[in-house]
Each structure stands twice: as C-alpha cells, then as structure tokens.
Model the fold of this input.
Amino acid sequence: MDQHLPAPRALTVIQLPDGTHAYADPRTLPAQQAPQQIVQHIHHAPPDRTVQRLALGSGVGAGTVAAGVYFGPLLVGVLTAIAANLALLAFLAAVMAWGVVTVVKSVGGSEGKAASKSVSRARRRRG
Done:
C-alpha cells in the first residue's frame, strides 16, 4: 500500500507580501532575483556629451570624437598655463618699469625729475 502513495515533498515556509507565512513547494516558486545594485555618484556632475552627440550625428567619425574628448581638456589646461605665464610676465614688466622710474627719479637729480615731469605732462595731455 505504501507504493501507491506519492513521494513526500519538502515544503518551505515563505513570507507573503502582507506579512503572513505560508507553506509552499520550492519547485513551484518563481526564481528569486538578487536585488539590483544602483551606483549613483552624488558628488559628480553627469558628463556633458552634447558636443560628442552633435559630432557623431553630423557624420564625424568616432576617432575624431575620441580625440576631442581626450585633447579638449588638455587644450584648456595648456591655454590656462599660457595665460598664467603671460600674466606673470605682465606683472614683472610693470614692476620693472616702476623700478626704472624710481631709480631715474632718485639718481638722475634735476634731470631725472624734469624727465619724469615731462612724461607726466604728456600723459595728462593725452588722457
């Protein structure tokens, strides 16, 4: 008589969405998926790819876009360094001009003072 009975199944206790527990056959349960991991960088702004999209849409190749992505920030850095060098040179030129004027006034005696007065008069007439 025991041969006609179905094999016993192992039942699993599961928790339903409403919080109650029920018995269920593990073979009939849907496969459970691992929770999806979402990585969000809050402290970074999303990259702006508008120029790349426009370039690719207008028929420019991907190599050109990649070169623009690579050399664009590099060009900005180089231009910034050049601007800083020019600003430093302008500052040094102003300091040296002030130093020359000061030395001419102090060492030149009456001739230096007369020269500085004529330069200041010329500036007043133009300005």
Observations:
- The mean pLDDT is 77.
- Residues 10 and 108 are 111 Å apart (CA to CA).
- The helical segments are 50-57, 62-107, 109-126.
